Amino acid sequence: MPTLIDNTAPKPDTRSAVSAAERAKGKGDAKGGLYKPRQPIYPKLVHGKWRMVKWALLIATLSVYYITPWIRWGRPEGFPQQAALVDFTGRRFYFFDIQLWPQEVYVFTGVLIAAALALFLTTALFGRLWCGYACPQTVWTDLYIVVERLFEGDRNARMRLDAAPLSFDKIWRKTGKHLTWLGIAFGTGGAWIFYFHDAPTLIRTFWIGQAPATAYVSCALLTATTYIFAGWMREQVCTYMCPWPRIQGAMLDQHSLQVTYLRERGEPRGAHKKGQSWEGRGDCIDCRQCVVVCPMGIDIRDGSQLECINCGLCVDACDDILGKLGRPTGLIAYDTDAAVAARSCGQKAVYKPVRSRTVYYAVALALVGGLTLWSLITRPKADLHVIRDRNPTFVRMHDGAVRDGYTLKITNRTFAERRFDVTFDGVSGARLSQPGQTAQRVTLIVPADQVVSARVFVTAPADADLAGSVPARFIAKSGDIITESKTVFLSGAANPQ
Amino acid sequence: MADRKIDDATGVETTGHEWDGIRELDNPLPRWWLWIWYACIAFSIGYWVLMPAWPGLNGYTKGLLNKSDRAEVGQELKALEAHRGEGAAMLRTASLEQIEKDPKLQAYAQQVGQSVFGDNCATCHGIGGTGSKGYANLRDDVWLWGGKLEDIQYTITHGIRSGAEGARVSQMPAYGRDEMLQPKQIDDLTEYVVNLSRRPADAGAVARAAPLFEAQCSACHGPQGQGNQQLGAPNLTDADWLFGSDRASIRGQIYAGNGGVMPAWSGRLSPETIKALSVYIHSNAGGQ
Ligand code: SF4
Ligand code: SF4
Predict the structure, then answer these.
(1) CB–CB of A38 and B32 under 8 A?
(2) Ligand 1, atom 4: closest residue by C-alpha
(3) For B286, which of A11, A14, A433 is closest by C-beta distance?
(4) In the CATH hierarchy, which fold is given to the domain comprising B71-165+269-284?
(5) 20 to 30 A Cα–Cα from A115, which one of A190, A376, B117, B121?
(6) What is the number of alpha carbons within 13 Å of residue B276 lying toward its C-beta?
(7) A11 located within any domain
(8) Half-sphere exposure of A479 toward its Cβ, with a 13 Å CA cutoff?
């Protein structure tokens, strides 16, 4: 079995992403020092197919995030008209046609477990694709780098600007960048709070100081984290703070696709003059383009590393260079360790997406996802819960009749008020009544989207031939909605007196 | 034992520890960790100054913000009272019937009633209100003094043999102790009462006791023994017995004429609380 990291290969230069000068600066600290200053990374803009995918996902994910709270959804009068809303005060969660009660939080649990399994499956198949393409940290950092590039130019210009002494030009560029960053951060924090309150109302009350304090606090918090994480900390969040890169090793194996530098093809590397023969040398011309574009500041030619988020930008950079040189592309590519090992032994590399690990993940995902979906679809429109009196469990009437008390809770999940006719089934001749009411039948009116609880009595006549405990049930019926709940009728003794 | 080496793959020094062939790299912490630590220290200093923090010999440092959990609890209690004021006002203005017919108000009265019952009434009548020997069962449909809302409210307000004005008083004579009847007559009466509740009894004794019952008991309990709620005289024909249904209990009751005492709650509970309590008891008993 091939090892994941080939320690026998020469390691020419580590941390080559950092320029000599930067390294010199950081060295004093790194050697013996307990704390290391951040080594700045200046990722260069790259073009290529993976970059295109990243642009597309950047636009898609951010659009979903910013636009969703503004989608309106037709619900009856008196209900929120917002498609996606976490209504804490009303204790409901609305998502288009789905409306969840707090006790249905298991749906979220199901969705979260399914999401985790999907992440496991993706990682087992394609490595840290989530990190490289869809993680909010990656997406917002990407957006922030776009802004940075707008104000300060691409890599070289940025490095020059940072090294330059303070000047008017430097000040306005830096200020403009940070203000724009803060603006985006504020927009991000602002969009977040719209998920928890009617957006058009909140946007008005927010500016005139009438919004709830939690809105301001959440907005400030999200603004701060967005600005700090995407602006200042960037790859440090992934490397030092996020637990995910440390766990992912458990999901990866030698068949997972990871961005890989094909050492056999690339080495020995070295400068190449036009017209020179490619005989006896590798394809890598040591142009370091793969290094300078890497947002994590690593050199993928050192082998797969904890920091690599599998974003494919180095693939694009190298392919671009190889294309210009007229060499076949793919010196850095999504590849598996197994394929690399196979090729090095002269065997044919096969990609194996179906493995026991991926099958487990896929089956578990299908199960959890299916179960969640099924429970969501088959969710009853109404629920009846019966809580029987425990003290006393039963009461003997003056004529020897036995009466049990119950509390009924009817949940009406529809958007219309409903009348539920309640019947009791189990003891023949038993009479249903409600305290304080003279009516012989029990009808409960439950307002739209509410729970109503009511006390009812069931009285069994003295001559009823009862065992101490008789299985029974309540049935609540409103039109085509029927819900029932099992309970027992207690009378203390098989034969009273 | 520090066997620090430079790691081949990364060029980083190792800590010198080894676990099963794995050596830990001695990477320095990022500097922002240090900053966060400094920020925490700064925060804690601010916290000492602003919040109650240091214990002293006589008290603790109060902090510039003057925060006090005790004062906050006081405020919350006040707010709670104000909040309850609303419900109390509704209970004050609504009539008992209105309270019981309005589902919302009824539910509110139930809540209030239940907690008040637990605090004040459960000692005698039991948490579930089922009573015990000598203490009335408030869950069934038997009422010595009437089971209408107003009757219940009146009983709670004035009590029974409480000495308060308007208190309900029923007087069962102690026929044996006061030597008003002979022991034999009391035995016969016991059989008569057992017979009233349709249980097998000594026919001879029943016949002997008939004129006695007519003369001594029917004034309060009625000629058929059906009781009288006006006088608080129990129905002797039903299945409910406040002081026990067996012969010994019945005989003891004729002999000693026991009667319980229930305190008057007016003055101790507010009128609206008594209303809520009445509704709670009434509805729990199925209403009358
Ligand atoms: S090494 Fe390549 S794939 Fe990995 S993070 Fe850097 S640019 Fe992305
Ligand atoms: S971009 Fe390609 S050719 Fe250039 S250094 Fe990286 S691997 Fe070598």
Answers:
(1) yes
(2) A308
(3) A433
(4) Cytochrome Bc1 Complex; Chain D, domain 2 (1.10.760)
(5) A190
(6) 25
(7) no
(8) 9
Distance of CA A246 from the midpoint of ligand 1 (Å): 17
Nearest Cα to B254, choosing from B231, B280, B225, B277? B225
Which residue CA neighbors atom 5 of ligand 1 most closely? Answer: A308
Please check if B180 is assigned to a binding site: no
Q: Which residue's alpha carbon is at the smallest distance from atom 2 of ligand 1?
A: A314
Amino acid identity for residue A196 in this structure: F
Same domain, A275 and A423: no
> Do A394 and A335 have their domain in common?
no
Mutate to test the pocket of ligand 2, among A265, A298, A324, A331 (most ligand atoms within 8 A of CB): A331
B8/A contact by beta carbon, under 8 A:
yes
Do residue A106 and residue A245 come from a single domain?
Answer: yes
In a domain, A454, yes or no: yes
Asked whether this complex has an ipTM greater than 0.90, the answer is no
Is B158 labelled as part of a ligand binding site? no
| Cα(B147)–Cα(B103) distance, integer angstroms | 21
CA distance A124 to A353: 9
Upper half-sphere CA count for residue A250 (Cβ side, 13 Å): 7
What pLDDT digit, counting tens, does each position of A33-50 carry? 788 888 889 999 999 999
One-letter amino acid of A295: P
**Residue B88, pLDDT score:** 86
Sign for the pseudo-dihedral over CA of B155, B159, B164, B168: positive
A290 lines ligand 2 (CB under 6 A): yes
Homologous superfamily of B183-256 in CATH? Cytochrome c-like domain (1.10.760.10)
Q: A18 pLDDT exceeds 70? A: no
| Cα separation, A55 vs B177, whole angstroms | 103
Mutate to test the interface with B, among A395, A420, A433 (most CBs of B within 10 A): A395
Per-residue pLDDT of A124-181, as tens digits, reads 999 999 999 999 999 999 999 999 999 999 999 999 999 999 999 999 999 999 999 9
Contact A35 B31 (CB under 8 A): yes
Task: Give yes or no for residue A435 having a pLDDT over 50.
Answer: yes
B40 is in an annotated binding site: no
Residue A186: domain span: 49-251
The answer to whether B239 and B197 are in contact (CB under 8 A) is yes
Element (H, E) at B107: helix B103-116
**Which token pair is A30?**
């790194």
Q: How far apart are CA A302 and CA A53, in angstroms?
A: 25
* Cross-strand pairs, B233: B228
Residue A444's CATH number: 2.60.40.10
Evaluated on CA atoms A13, A15, A20, A25, the torsion sign reads: negative
Please indicate, yes or no, whether residues A170 and A132 belong to a single structural domain of this protein: yes
SS3 content of chain A, % helix, strand, coil (to 5): 45, 20, 40
Residue type, A450: Q
The answer, yes or no, to whether any atom of ligand 1 lies below 6 A from the CB of A41, is no
Any idea which residue has 């400094």 for tokens? B38
Q: How far apart are CA A23 and CA A312, in angstroms?
A: 25
CB distance A46 to A320 below 8 Å? yes
8 A C-beta contact, residue A475 and residue A484? yes
Pocket-testing residue among A41, A309, A320, A321, ligand 1, by greatest number of atoms within 8 A of Cβ: A309
Is residue A72 within 8 A of residue A83, CB to CB? The reply is yes
Residue identified by tokens 């790691």 is B7
Q: Tell me the pairing of strands B22-25 and B14-19.
A: antiparallel
Q: Is the pLDDT of residue B204 over 90?
A: yes
Q: Which helix (H) or strand (E) holds A382?
A: strand A382-388
Count of domains in chain A?
A: 3
